[in-house]
């Protein structure tokens, strides 16, 4: 029996129509060196149409790929909307990729046009000659005319000013009808081995993910909200916050390149966002800034989303107790659009129990199914105890990688489920507790030691700014944990003191004996702890290890 | 370019899996004569599986239709979940339909099984022999064994106790994979002319509508919420509140047949819902009850959704000012799943301006597009002034009626848009202001007079309980308004006083001269003012009309 319902497609063009027609007085504010600039969604609609017209005039048709090399700002949002709405495919380039990775992904995706921020021209120029399929570069931003355009032109590509291209177009565009399963956008994951792998989002997956972000269990966005995505739009779609804001009519506050605590806090005080999202490092810096400036309050922020790596409970506690800020941990990955779970504690818990739930990777959202699979491939009980690899599935989870013949790619999927590479357990109420990345697990004497738990506890020590625990070979126990510690400025602590500090929360066999005090934790291009580098440094004798 | 995303279908079975696995400790509470009964979503999951198994054992396969003849209660929720999840089609029968309509819709839909509440056995029994395709009747509810089963059995149908059927089944069911565009449920609209017409919802439309209801701009549901659907589950799916609660993990408070103000208020105080939805009449009664019982507070209710007919601003004001309750108007119809717009005022308005927006039919939701079309078929400007018929489209709007050869059916669609039959305007920010049903418009001297505006104003008079304005023929002006007034118990008012009361808000030519004081406003089977009957009574001289 067929239903009688309309078969309207879930598309980015329909989001553009909605936001610009129903919420024309919402706005997008972008930070500048000394303040901000702003336009309404009504005005944005005209500019998005002009951008689509401009790209069409440069020969972008069908599902051609248009890349962005941009901070979080108004022009990046315009690209987010115009490119998929016109039927083309948005490819967000991570500006922090290593040169050879950047070249690889742009060539693999066959990007034809790159839109680059004026402030990033220098970073792009050196690689541009190697981007084989790129024909045009558009330079965007208020200072585009003053950028070193010759450094781009020497690549032989045609270089245009973004505003010049828009100025020649009409304020309306006849958005083509697209199938909701067609590609809308793509994002490459920074593989730890092999080449980066591309995830190709559909209009449908982006639309459904945005709806989920707008629901009460995630962000509950309304058009009265003001959303500050600090997490980059080139990193897992800024967690869907840009499209979700457009969908709900919420205004957007864009930090552009002003991501240090001081200008960020100033921007928050000036633009008064109600919701923000960023990785723990950013909030750690903001916390330090707030601690040092007791008269500064961020009272507009009703909810802070945090994720990208495990969120230390100590950070959440400090923000709530010292600054009245409510931080909620969420979990996901590029392959899951990314939001898959959010750590709202269940009803009726309080005190340390509440913090225990806030410390999980979150509760599965409706739309995402999860399971824990053991080494032997068997599905383990959802009892909060059995530990294995987390697998997920759902309409905004990827089923494959784009044109990948890498054998590692196929191994990421298990009969329709995505193997997340995260290890942990799932409880009876859908809460995910992650103990490690599969590649980072520490197995000591046949038992697993959770590096995440140890890091979380260590970062609760007042003298510790950051902690990264890795497994190192051990003759007797196969592996033992090595705790790499970055000490907070002006503070001091010894290995013995840290081991003593941990001893109340961990069994003796779980406590690290080995500590290394380091200046900073090495990071990947998306800002995560790079434990591969730490293990390598240990192997090469570059870490000065103390025994506690 | 194909996306790499998974093609998981949006189905009711996935909602069942989510709610019962991730929110097993949420619950559904059902009102009883002297209190309530309750089960958890975990337990609900087992019962839903048993019901599916039971229906399969009775021969329900493929897309067979299973009808419900039930109040809002736990067993009706079980049917809402089990029937679509097993691939069959839920047909909610309106218990208030006139007998010939009930027989028509059950036969037209070819219902095979009817699930009936013990308290409704008497109402069904007389019509049951005429339900030609029905083979089995399941009697549900705590008093099912004591119901007059013989009155049902005399129809020749097989009559079983719902609990007996469930008891013979397993607590798990292997939900079949269905296409999200397949039929999940159906609901007939009570046509004012011709036979009722069926809308067949798909899994996809129900899922997307539920997601929309869970977003911040509608109900912003979280698993901490408790939802009280007073609007019947046989009336436009209880506005999607049942599925939305299941999707978000919110608990449900079901009023069963206890819909009068006194037991309803008691149930609200006992079960402490955070959100509720009902038509204005219900809230009018609750308001009177609260006014008469000043020590009673409904402080758990954070938001009240109201719709089904125009919501008097006076009602919203009284609830807020005298009882601290926040009521929000929503608009929709069976054909739109139903929620299409919600009247949250825009940012930055207050005072009378806020009430003006709260008095509209609401702002279009993302997913629903709207336009105003004039008599000549031309699309009119979205300027808040131009008046015409409202047309809508979107993935939860119907595109046709089920197996309807009624010429009126085809006229309801306009190139992919649904003609709503509602007349009004649309402003630059997507707010819909409705002035009339197309069939109820009053055209006087070439100008439209809004019956809705007059009714709203009249119901703001302290002596007026209800007002229904209809057009009556006039030699000079073609039509003039006749105001039918139900006076509040113990109050009194004259036609002249009411005309004087209106004169500050309306132009002189808009003021009714003719008033009829009546005992009650006739209603349709879904509780709306039946103006057809009022016009007929006037024609037949059954109304005693006074001139003011």
Describe the structure.
2 copies of one chain form a homodimer. Chain A is of the alpha/beta class and 548 residues long. Chain A has a domain at 441-547: 2-Layer Sandwich (GMP Synthetase, Chain A, domain 3), CATH 3.30.300. The first copy, chain A, is built from 17 helices and 27 strands. In chain A, strands 1, 2, 10, 11, 12, 13, 14, 15, 16, 17, 18, 19, 20 and 21 form a 14-stranded mixed sheet that branches. The first copy, chain A, has a 7-stranded mixed sheet with strand order 7-6-5-3-4-8-9. A 4-stranded mixed sheet of chain A has the order 24-25-26-27, with helices on both faces. In chain A, helix 8 (203-214) packs across helix 9. The longest helix of chain A is centred in the first third of the chain and has 17 residues, at 41-57. The model of chain A has no long low-confidence stretch (mean pLDDT 94). Chains A and B meet through helix 1, strand 9 and helix 8 of A and helix 1, strand 9 and helix 8 of B. Chains A, B: This is Fatty acid--CoA ligase. Chains A, B: InterPro entries: AMP-bd_C, AMP-bd_C_sf, AMP-binding_CS, AMP-dep_synth/lig_dom, ANL_N_sf, ATP-dep_AMP-bd_enzyme. Chains A, B: Belongs to the ATP-dependent AMP-binding enzyme family. Chains A, B: One of its GO terms (molecular function) is ligase activity, forming carbon-sulfur bonds. Chains A, B: Residues 454-528 form the AMP-binding enzyme C-terminal domain.
- Please identify the oligomeric state: homodimer
Say which CATH homologous superfamily of the domain at 441-547 in chain A is assigned: ANL, C-terminal domain
**CATH class type of the domain at 441-547 in chain A:** Alpha Beta
CATH fold assignment of the domain at 441-547 in chain A: GMP Synthetase, Chain A, domain 3
Q: Percent range for helical residues of chain A?
A: 25-40%
Largest interface: A-B, 73 and 73 residues
Spans of chain A of at least 5 consecutive residues whose pLDDT stays below 50 are: none
Q: What's the end-to-end separation of chain A, in Å?
A: 70 Å
Over all CA atoms, what is the radius of gyration of chain A?
A: 23 Å
Number of helices in the DSSP assignment of chain A: 17
Q: Give the overall average pLDDT of chain A.
A: 94
Q: Count of DSSP E strands of chain A? A: 27
Largest sheet of chain A: 14 strands, mixed
* Shape assignment of chain A: globular
Give the class of chain A from helix and strand content and strand pairing: alpha/beta
Strand content of chain A: 25-35%
Known CATH architecture of the domain at 441-547 in chain A: 2-Layer Sandwich
Domain AMP-binding enzyme C-terminal (chains A, B): 454-528
Pfam family, one (chains A, B): AMP-binding
Keywords (chains A, B): Ligase
Domain AMP-dependent synthetase/ligase (chains A, B): 18-402
